Amino acid sequence: MTKNATTLCEPETFEVTTHSVSCDGGAKHAQIQGSANGHPKVFMDMGQMDSVDCKYCGKRFVLKAEF
Ligand SMILES: [Zn+2]
Protein backbone atom coordinates (compact mmCIF):
# COMPACT_ATOMS: atom_id res chain seq x y z
CA MET A 1 0.00 0.00 0.00
CA THR A 2 2.68 2.48 0.94
CA LYS A 3 4.46 1.42 -2.21
CA ASN A 4 1.56 2.55 -4.40
CA ALA A 5 1.22 5.91 -2.70
CA THR A 6 4.83 6.74 -3.38
CA THR A 7 4.53 5.82 -7.04
CA LEU A 8 1.50 8.02 -7.60
CA CYS A 9 3.13 11.14 -6.22
CA GLU A 10 6.35 10.69 -8.13
CA PRO A 11 6.45 12.41 -11.53
CA GLU A 12 8.12 10.53 -14.32
CA THR A 13 11.54 12.00 -14.91
CA PHE A 14 13.74 11.82 -17.96
CA GLU A 15 17.35 12.81 -18.11
CA VAL A 16 18.22 14.69 -21.25
CA THR A 17 21.39 16.24 -22.58
CA THR A 18 19.95 19.22 -24.42
CA HIS A 19 17.78 22.15 -23.41
CA SER A 20 15.33 21.42 -26.19
CA VAL A 21 13.16 18.37 -25.67
CA SER A 22 10.07 16.91 -27.26
CA CYS A 23 7.30 14.85 -25.74
CA ASP A 24 4.37 12.97 -27.19
CA GLY A 25 3.04 11.47 -24.01
CA GLY A 26 4.07 7.89 -24.41
CA ALA A 27 1.65 5.04 -23.90
CA LYS A 28 3.25 3.51 -20.85
CA HIS A 29 2.77 6.32 -18.37
CA ALA A 30 -0.54 7.50 -19.84
CA GLN A 31 -2.16 4.24 -18.86
CA ILE A 32 -1.01 4.57 -15.29
CA GLN A 33 -2.47 8.05 -15.00
CA GLY A 34 -5.70 6.94 -16.60
CA SER A 35 -5.79 9.96 -18.87
CA ALA A 36 -5.48 10.22 -22.63
CA ASN A 37 -3.15 7.91 -24.48
CA GLY A 38 -0.35 10.28 -25.26
CA HIS A 39 -0.79 13.69 -26.81
CA PRO A 40 0.30 15.63 -29.88
CA LYS A 41 4.05 15.91 -30.01
CA VAL A 42 5.24 19.13 -28.47
CA PHE A 43 8.64 20.74 -28.33
CA MET A 44 9.80 22.51 -25.21
CA ASP A 45 12.82 24.59 -24.36
CA MET A 46 14.18 24.93 -20.85
CA GLY A 47 15.63 28.33 -21.53
CA GLN A 48 17.81 29.15 -18.54
CA MET A 49 16.31 26.43 -16.39
CA ASP A 50 17.70 22.94 -16.04
CA SER A 51 14.36 21.19 -16.17
CA VAL A 52 10.98 21.49 -17.83
CA ASP A 53 7.62 19.82 -17.29
CA CYS A 54 5.43 18.71 -20.13
CA LYS A 55 2.20 20.68 -19.77
CA TYR A 56 0.25 17.82 -21.32
CA CYS A 57 1.32 14.79 -19.36
CA GLY A 58 3.40 16.22 -16.54
CA LYS A 59 6.49 14.35 -17.56
CA ARG A 60 9.61 16.06 -16.24
CA PHE A 61 12.73 16.49 -18.30
CA VAL A 62 15.87 17.19 -16.34
CA LEU A 63 19.10 18.35 -17.88
CA LYS A 64 21.82 15.89 -17.16
CA ALA A 65 24.77 17.86 -15.89
CA GLU A 66 27.81 15.97 -17.02
CA PHE A 67 31.16 17.25 -18.12
ZN1 LIG B 1 4.13 14.94 -22.50
Strand and helix layout:
Blueprint: H1 2-9, E1 13-16, E2 20-23, H2 27-33, E3 42-45, E4 51-53, E5 60-63
Bound molecules: zinc ion.
Description:
By secondary structure, the chain is an alpha+beta fold. It has a single domain (2-63), classed as HSP40/DNAj peptide-binding domain (Sandwich). Helix content is 22%, strand content 28%. It has 2 helices and 5 strands. The protein has a 3-stranded mixed β-sheet with strand order 1-5-4, with no helix packed on it. A hairpin with a 6-residue loop joins strand 4 (51-53) and strand 5. The radius of gyration is 13 Å and the shape is globular. 12% of the residues are buried. The structure holds zinc ion. Zinc ion binds next to loops.
Q: What are the defining features of this structure?
A:
three-stranded mixed sheet, 22% helix, globular, alpha+beta, binds zinc ion, HSP40/DNAj peptide-binding domain, 67 residues, 2 helices
Largest sheet: 3 strands, mixed
Uncertain stretches of 5 or more adjacent residues: none
Query: What is the CATH class designation?
Result: Mainly Beta
Total number of beta strands:
5
What is the H level of CATH, i.e. the homologous superfamily? q5lls5 like domains
- CATH architecture verdict: Sandwich
Shape: globular
Strand percentage lies at 25-35%
The total count of helices amounts to 2
CATH topology annotation: HSP40/DNAj peptide-binding domain
Q: Rg from C-alpha positions?
A: 13 Å
Task: List all distinct small molecules, including ions and cofactors, that are bound in this structure.
Answer: zinc ion
Order of helices and strands: HEEHEEE
Which secondary-structure class do the elements indicate?
A: alpha+beta
End-to-end distance: 40 Å
Widest β-sheet, arrangement of strands: 1-5-4
Total discrete domains: 1
**Average of the residue pLDDT scores:** 78
Helix content: 10-25%
